[in-house]
Amino acid sequence: MLYFVEFGERLHRSVKSIVPTHTVLEGGGFQVRRPVAMGSLMSPFLLLDEMGPVNYGPKQAIGAPSHPHRGFETVTYMLQGSMQHADSAGNSGDLNPGDVQWMTAGRGIIHSELPHPDFFDAGGVMHGFQIWVNLPAKDKMMEPRYQDIPSDDIPTVESNDGKIWAKVVAGEALGAKAVIDTVIPIQFIHYRMREDSNLTHKISKNLNCMIYMFGGQAEVSGKSIEDGQLILLTEGEEVQIKSTEGAEFLILAGPEINEPIARYGPFVMNTRQEIHQAVIDYQNGTLA
Ligand code: MN
Q1: How far apart are the first and last CA of the chain?
Q2: Is 281 helix (H, G, I), strand (E, B) or coil?
């Protein structure tokens, strides 16, 4: 291995496993595509939900009414449709196509995630992602914070040959750096590859990394990956992706948090006592 490092070649990540997705109902009953056993697959990612795409008729769109969170972060990335978030601290914001909301629940937040009233009335296609990022014990009870970033403020970059487009939600890709500040080091990149394109994506070797394919087809380190598959990668400094027909996917990377996980619904802590306390705080009205 040292040989390759000395001669300036980077260590390639390969495919450790390919995880299928299944369709489940979340929140008030909206449809999501979710990798099987997602909660235990790869630190620090607790959940990866592809919301839709669903084509709603007028007054049919469904969201997640008021509910609490403690101990981690929820990241919402909209592709189509429009949502409106509101929380117990009086924050509210709209999420339109391309927008990101990075919410650090920390010690506690109670919020609702609903279709925007205009979208609800008109109907249309809803498509997006929600990702849960765990926090280490020392940050679980931090003050909650919001980063509502409109699409125009999120850096995008294209490869020199114009065949690869990336939106840099967190971390860095093709020389572009994200504007979102994360508590722990996270890479969250949305890639689109056109026909007959090649990508080498760099990832710090200290981070776990996975790829979620949601359109087209690609070869990741030589293995053929289809729409609706999650790919867990081995360690390394970069991954090589090749697409003949075009592909669309997210690359997610983050550190191994080597701590016990105690989870109950919308609370993710380290011990059962901490979960019990979260439930009591919520019932007492002192969570948020
Ligand atoms: Mn929520």
Answers
A1: 50
A2: helix
The pTM score is: 0.94
Residue 108's DSSP bridge partners are: none
Report how far ligand 1's centroid is from the alpha carbon of 51 (Å): 13
Going from the Cα of 191 to the center of ligand 1, the distance in angstroms, rounded, reads 25
Q: What is the pLDDT along the chain (288 residues), one digit of tens a residue?
A: 444 444 457 799 999 999 999 999 988 888 899 999 998 999 999 999 999 999 999 999 999 999 999 999 999 999 999 999 999 888 889 999 999 999 999 999 999 999 999 999 999 999 999 999 999 999 999 999 999 999 999 999 999 999 999 999 999 999 999 999 999 999 999 999 999 999 999 999 999 999 999 999 999 999 999 999 999 999 999 999 999 999 999 999 999 999 999 999 999 999 999 999 999 999 999 999
CATH number at residue 46: 2.60.120.10
Cα-to-centroid distance, 68 and ligand 1 (Å):
7
Instruction: Choose one of 134, 151, 168: the last residue of a domain.
Output: 151
Determine the 3-state secondary structure of 272 from DSSP. helix
CA of 100 to the centre of ligand 1 (A): 14
AA identity, residue 43: S
Residue 69 burial (10 A CB sphere; 0-12, 13-18, 19+): buried
Cβ atoms within 10 Å of 283's Cβ, excluding its own: 9
Give the integer Cα–Cα distance in Å for 165 and 18: 24
Query: Residues 47, 81: one domain?
Result: yes
